[in-house]
Known about the structure:
Blueprint: H1 2-46, E1 50-51, E2 56-57, H2 63-68, H3 71-104, H4 107-118, H5 125-136, H6 141-148, H7 162-185, H8 191-198, H9 203-214, H10 216-231, H11 235-240, H12 248-257, H13 263-293, H14 314-322
Antiparallel strand pairs: 1-2
Amino acid sequence: MKDTSKLTNEKLAERKNELHSWILSFPALLWLSFFFLIPYILIFVYSFFTPDIYETLPILSLEAYKEVLSTRYLQSYWTSIKFAIYTTGISLLLGYPTAYFMARSSEKLKNVFLVFIIIPFWTNFVIRIFSWRIFLAPHGVLSNLLIDLSIIDTPLRLLRTDFAVLLVMVYVYLPYMILPLYSVLEKMDFTLLDTAMDLGAKPLKAFINVTLPLSKQGIFAGAILVFIPALGTYIIPQLIGHQHSLFIGQVITYKIKNIPRSWPIASALSFILVVFIFALLLGCYYLNLRMKKHHLEYTVVNDPQSGGIFSGLSTPRRIAKHSKIRINKEIPHV
């Protein structure tokens, strides 16, 4: 009876916490519904109107979607997706070691590194992009410095190239990868790595089978936070890139600003992009649920009677089973 009443109380407490969560999140949901959901509905409605040279005719038509599915627009979609993938991959390669080093540092150094990462957010986004224009220009800071050092003879042609666009995108979105990874790695119990190596695993294998699985939530969060804004970016390719490699954000802006204006085509382009992002988020959510079902529990039992971190012969084997590490038979178990 006691167990039954205990379970009932736990369920009531859980439902009460869920109710409190809904109440606390209601203002945010109301805000998002008003300022995000309603504009998306308007975009969806506008995408079925008939485009004209200067104005939009409220006549239902599929002309905008027929135009959007042509080859030239698909090329812009592919350019945006390609650069978003490159930016996410490079940010992960650079951000993971940085976040790992921050997580293993002392408390004072952690705060210093966090300040260094957050400092760029104190400066206006457009000003930061213009500073890169000055730095990468043919007669800018970088070219003049290399010429003065006699490393090159002619100015570098970095501005208005795909390399410059990718470089600035990684610079802008790298903090969005580092911060989620750091928040996950900072909470990790690093004694698990010592346990894995005590069981015979090499440092690289211990990292792949212990650290990497435990940080997958941070990788997911960082990848989403980098990929989605990189996919719809406009100002970076507009100021740094060239006209032969148009991003979908640039195309949408041109359709609204330039003549002939076409709000329906711009709306159709935007709505397809929103559907793609929504499908991507659903896929990530599904993968996250699948990974949670097969979540590996890394446990180290501290048995005070044994005087060590293992509670007999079964504990090292349990850890080895969870972390997929083969126990070295020559290592005696405590």
